[in-house]
Amino acid sequence: MSAVPGRWWRPRSLRTQLLFWLVTLHLVAAALTAWFTFVAYGDLVHNALDEQMRLVADSYAGSDPPRTPRPLDGNAALVRGAFVVQLWSADGRTLRASSWPPLAVVPLQMQPGFSDASADAPAPSRWRVFTAEAGPRADQPRVQVLQNEDYRRRRALRRALLEGLPIALLLPLALLILWLIVSAASRSLRAVARDVASQDERRPTELSLARVPDEIAPLVQAFNQLLSRMRSAFATQRRFVQDAAHELRTPMAAIGLQIENLRAHVPAGEATERFNQLEAGVTRAQHLIEQLLSLSRQDAPGRPMPGEPVDIETLLRESVSQLMVLADARRVDIGFEGSIAPVVQAPAAELRSVFDNLIDNALRYAPEGGVVDVRLHEVDGHAVVDVLDNGPGIPASAIGRVFDRFFRVPGAPAGGSGLGLAIARTAAERHGLRIELRNRDEAEEGGSPGLLARVHLPAASMPLTPG
Question: What is the pTM of this model?
Answer without folding.
Answer: 0.46
